[in-house]
Amino acid sequence: MSGNYLAIVNVPVQEWGELYSEEEAMNIGTIFHDLNKPFFAAESVLTSINPIASSEGNAGKTKEQSDREQLMTKITQISFFLDDLTLYLDTHEKDIQAIQLYREKIKECDQLKKQFAQEFYPLTRPCIPFCISDSEISFCWQEGPMPWEGACV
Amino acid sequence: MWIYEKRLQYPVKITKTCPKTAQLIISQYGGPDGELSASMRYLSQRYTMPVKEVGGLLTDIGTEELAHMEIICAMVYQLTKNLTIEQAKEAGFDAYYIDHTTALWPQAASSLPFTAIEFQSKGDAITDLTEDLAAEQKARTVYDNLLRMIPDPEVQEPLKFLRSREVVHFQRFGEALEKTKDKLDSKNFYYFNPEFDKEMFHGKL
């Protein structure tokens, strides 16, 4: 395995360790306790438990909107968990614990995306078959707000 | 091939118009250490990487950088979508307005346009991975500087998230470099170029 050598960069390979919950990981920007390295000038930023659909903004929202935001929040959190785990597995392809966790989370994520397509609109083209809206008269891919509008966060 | 997902990796909801902040943040779209540069750097370097898993990592991080570019663009868009001419003048956003109105265009905070000169694809695995490590640190410094300068929590939260990603990517590129080193002779990593002198590289396996 790798050691320390002169005249080249040496970075220790990360070992599997404690993980944050899906909610916490989203706030922090990584699932790994060992890689959480905050910056002092940003420590005062109070992140709500749920940065995506904070309850204070719920006033005046329809039930459909708040249901949609809740499901979108779950999808965003679990997808990010998978994003970070993917990069870990790219350099730790034989880590059994990580592989097992990946399998669990990806199944759950697929299920949530399917539900989102059934209840609201498809987030990806492979989700189009799950849309049960009036897909015969209008193409559902264009449904839902554009992600940069901050409307369905 | 890529698949688009109609959502942001980290949600952005900014309610206050602020062209000054937009003008600073736009650097992470088209600036020297921005997300577009990062993505193009990794997605260019991957083809000739001698260790397959490193090419895979470059693909995944290069893809995540595209998602970060979308987050930055969403922030700039929301900070300027209800812009008035008076606000543009006051904030010094008028020059940008003349050329692009409130559309997105990749440029640095200093208004230099995006250019491929900002990154390298050198064709030597050790050189490229060392550049990638530096790139993540440079981007982190930009986020540090932005976080010091911008007090609005609606803006700070996504910036804080993006900054954390730079630290994680640094670690992964370090591990990718270790993987590459494992396949070379530790007595002299520089005896040949594993990306070009393929026969010598494979003779080592």
TrEMBL record, chain A:
<protein>
    <submittedName>
        <fullName>Spore coat associated protein JA (CotJA)</fullName>
    </submittedName>
</protein>
<dbReference type="InterPro" id="IPR024207">
    <property type="entry name" value="CotJB_dom"/>
</dbReference>
<dbReference type="Pfam" id="PF11007">
    <property type="entry name" value="CotJA"/>
</dbReference>
<dbReference type="Pfam" id="PF12652">
    <property type="entry name" value="CotJB"/>
</dbReference>
<feature type="domain" description="Protein CotJB">
    <location>
        <begin position="69"/>
        <end position="149"/>
    </location>
</feature>
<dbReference type="InterPro" id="IPR020256">
    <property type="entry name" value="Spore_coat_CotJA"/>
</dbReference>
Automatic annotation (TrEMBL), chain B:
<keyword id="KW-0167">Capsid protein</keyword>
<feature type="binding site">
    <location>
        <position position="60"/>
    </location>
    <ligand>
        <name>Ca(2+)</name>
    </ligand>
</feature>
<dbReference type="InterPro" id="IPR012347">
    <property type="entry name" value="Ferritin-like"/>
</dbReference>
<feature type="binding site">
    <location>
        <position position="136"/>
    </location>
    <ligand>
        <name>Mn(2+)</name>
    </ligand>
</feature>
<keyword id="KW-0479">Metal-binding</keyword>
<feature type="binding site">
    <location>
        <position position="68"/>
    </location>
    <ligand>
        <name>Mn(2+)</name>
    </ligand>
</feature>
<keyword id="KW-0946">Virion</keyword>
<feature type="binding site">
    <location>
        <position position="65"/>
    </location>
    <ligand>
        <name>Mn(2+)</name>
    </ligand>
</feature>
<protein>
    <submittedName>
        <fullName>Spore coat protein JC</fullName>
    </submittedName>
</protein>
<dbReference type="InterPro" id="IPR007760">
    <property type="entry name" value="Mn_catalase"/>
</dbReference>
<dbReference type="InterPro" id="IPR039377">
    <property type="entry name" value="Mn_catalase_dom"/>
</dbReference>
<dbReference type="GO" id="GO:0046872">
    <property type="term" value="F:metal ion binding"/>
</dbReference>
<feature type="binding site">
    <location>
        <position position="169"/>
    </location>
    <ligand>
        <name>Mn(2+)</name>
    </ligand>
</feature>
<keyword id="KW-0464">Manganese</keyword>
<feature type="binding site">
    <location>
        <position position="35"/>
    </location>
    <ligand>
        <name>Mn(2+)</name>
    </ligand>
</feature>
<keyword id="KW-0106">Calcium</keyword>
<comment type="similarity">
    <text>Belongs to the manganese catalase family.</text>
</comment>
<dbReference type="Pfam" id="PF05067">
    <property type="entry name" value="Mn_catalase"/>
</dbReference>
<dbReference type="InterPro" id="IPR009078">
    <property type="entry name" value="Ferritin-like_SF"/>
</dbReference>
